[in-house]
Amino acid sequence: MKQHLQRQSGVANVDVSLIDGKVEVTPKEDGKIDPPQLLKATYDSGVSVAELDMTATGKLVKDSSGNLVLQVSPNQSFVLAPNELSKGLEPLMDSPSVITVRGQLYKKPPGKQKKTDVPATLKLLVLEVEKKE
Amino acid sequence: MNRKRLVLLLFTGSLFVPRLQAQVKHIEMRVEGMT
Predict the structure, then answer these.
(1) Residues 6+ apart with CB under 8 A from A123
(2) Following CA atoms A103, A27, A109, A115 in sequence, which dihedral angle do they give, to the nearest 10 degrees?
(3) pTM for the full predicted model
(4) pLDDT of residue B15
(5) In this complex, how many residue pairs, one in chain A and one in chain B, have their CB atoms less than 8 Å apart?
(6) Rounded mean pLDDT of A51-75?
(7) Residues B12-29: pLDDT tens digits?
(8) Predicted pLDDT of residue B18
(9) Quick one: which of A61, A118, B12, B24 is 20 to 30 A from A45 by CA?
(10) Integer Cα distance of A8 and A75 in angstroms
């Protein structure tokens, strides 16, 4: 699995801890990493993902459906799942402020024992706002 | 003259200030079924 993930676009390094089942991925500076693709690649290597957390920096914008979106690059953005923290970020929408957030992009649905496919749309549940500039 | 120098100094300095780049900084997964 480690080698499979290291071959993915934008991945600089992969650290696997067998004891606690943790996989840490360090992205390259080129910004080409695609977390949903990484999730799929992990499933493809025969491992089931229970949870995927990420830290990302970007601007807050509103998409065509009115959702709050973290725009990481012109072609990469993450819709924020509504919670108290995302509500607190709404005033920064469409402002030049750049924020860094830690959030949960995927969590395996409870109760399902067999391996599930990656859902088509992933929302970023903000767990912590690390920096506002 | 001094003002010109000051403006030039500020401009040059701003080029070296580390900017907060928009990007994915870190990813962590908890996985099951790993051997």
Answers:
(1) A78, A79, A80, A81, A105
(2) -170
(3) 0.79
(4) 54
(5) 106
(6) 92
(7) 655 554 455 678 999 999
(8) 45
(9) B24
(10) 18
Residue span(s) of chain A under CATH 2.40.50 come to 51-133
Q: Looking at chain B, how many residues does it have?
A: 35
Average pLDDT over residues A118-132: 85
**Most B-contacting residue of A54, A61, A92, A112 (CB-CB within 10 A), to test interface:** A54
Per DSSP, A123 falls in state E
**Touching check for A26 and chain B: CB below 8 Å?**
yes
Residue type present at position A126 = V
In the block, residue with structure tokens 């934008």: A10
Q: Which residues of B touch A (CB under 8 A)?
A: 20-34
CATH classification (class only), A51-133? mainly beta
The answer to whether the beta carbons of residues B31 and A48 sit under 8 Å apart is yes
Residue A27 and residue A36 in contact, taking contact as beta carbons nearer than 8 Å: no
What's the one-letter identity of residue A43? Y
- Tell if the CB–CB gap between B33 and A22 is shorter than 8 Å: no
